[in-house]
Write a structure and sequence with these properties.
Elements: H1 2-20, H2 24-31, E1 33-42, H3 44-58, E2 67-70, H4 76-79, E3 84-92, H5 93-103, E4 107-110, E5 115-118, H6 141-144
Parallel strand pairs: 2-5
Antiparallel strand pairs: 1-3, 4-5
Length: 155
């Protein structure tokens, strides 16, 4: 019963952390819907630049979205490789970022103030410390489990 309540507590903490941890950037990118987005054999850099310009025109505050690039020297070439072709209507900028990164073999993360684009996987968010009460023996079972019976080798 204790393990069930522990699992429920962990699941609740994870779900609450994901909901509360959603950045304002992701919410804005989800709300900004582009009526029409067309590109043919474009580079990821051109796609992100067009998204930045569209976000400024669609944002009621006229601030738009910021893009930050964390690329290794080898990864900078990925931004300049043509090959992204899209013809989409009524799509959110959040989905445009996702599709552009998929097509360009890039990774992305929504931070509080910008959308981070990288050529390698990014951690989901900043490190968080959480405390969970667990039953004795869950962490160090060797000290709390019963001793094994000795084997009689003479039989």
């Amino acid at each position: 019963m204790k393990s069930l309540s522990l699992a429920a507590a962990i699941l609740l903490a994870l779900v609450a952390g994901q909901v509360l941890g959603q950045s304002g950037t992701r919410q804005l990118a989800r709300q900004l819907v582009v009526p029409e987005f067309k590109m043919a054999e474009a580079t990821p850099a051109a796609a992100f630049e067009q998204m930045r310009a569209l976000s400024k025109t669609l944002d009621p505050a006229k601030q738009g979205l910021n893009f930050v690039f964390q690329m290794t020297p080898a990864g900078k070439d990925l931004l300049q490789q043509p090959g992204i072709t899209m013809d989409l209507t009524n799509i959110s900028i959040e989905k445009l970022v996702e599709y552009t990164c998929m097509a360009g073999s890039l990774h992305y993360r929504f931070d509080d103030r910008a959308i981070v684009i990288a050529d390698r996987p990014l951690p989901d968010s900043a490190m968080q410390t959480r405390v969970f009460n667990v039953a004795p023996g869950v962490v160090d079972p060797e000290r709390t489990r019963p001793k094994a019976k000795k084997i009689d080798w003479k039989d």
